[in-house]
């Protein structure tokens, strides 16, 4: 069953009351038949006494106003395999103490919750996008992929998906593929404001992590001196079996043409542990800013098994076209040649398309 009505905001502007979808009607005949339910731009009042959802495998709620007890309803969804909450309201917390052993896919996006607490032994895919909050996924030892995003369009709020993933969500440590999307601000200093001084590295180990992707937007007026990404070096030691590392940078600055290639990786390599299994390194938005060079050289120094290194000067993160103007490609290629000889590793520089 799919119910997709006129957007809630548009209905309000037209003075039309948001439609209240009667969940009780699905179990009114005393027969549990519904297996997939998609609701968009409606309101619902769930509670634990509603019947008719014991066979439900797929529940997708998009732009839904929730005024009841959603966790209470989920307690009765014994067969649930896929759950999506996208841009929903009225969910202060998602605490479901009952085991949802068949749940494989869980996505919570742009839905403000203070607590996410599930018992999901079979979960393989988890996505969360929003303000970083308390997240506990009990018993999820089969995680294949986790996506965490705290990226925000607001310039007034710092986000810390990187810090949160490595220090505050131990239940995702069994994941094999991790994708992180986060912002960094230059003022106040991003790491001293977001990480306790005594914390210099991860709080737990990602023993099964093979593929790590990070997309980082950096807001600074001094890209040559903003060294927030260097804290990332401490976290690499938390993934001793890491094989693929992808880093996508976007420096939101009007001084993108200012860069300096004079830097080594000695200062960073001492902070990096492991990386004996690392084979592939890819960096986009690479402009030879000293912090970028320090991080990459530190990785090359410790990554003895690295087979392929690719750097792309272009910003691939969705951004303004102006951020890809005046790229010093020839200087980046010169640095890559020198660094390649120094570490004995081939470094490919992807060409910048003509016309930029």
Automatic annotation (TrEMBL):
<dbReference type="Pfam" id="PF23622">
    <property type="entry name" value="LRR_At1g61320_AtMIF1"/>
</dbReference>
<dbReference type="InterPro" id="IPR053772">
    <property type="entry name" value="At1g61320/At1g61330-like"/>
</dbReference>
<protein>
    <recommendedName>
        <fullName>At1g61320/AtMIF1 LRR domain-containing protein</fullName>
    </recommendedName>
</protein>
<dbReference type="InterPro" id="IPR032675">
    <property type="entry name" value="LRR_dom_sf"/>
</dbReference>
<feature type="domain" description="At1g61320/AtMIF1 LRR">
    <location>
        <begin position="17"/>
        <end position="313"/>
    </location>
</feature>
<dbReference type="InterPro" id="IPR055357">
    <property type="entry name" value="LRR_At1g61320_AtMIF1"/>
</dbReference>
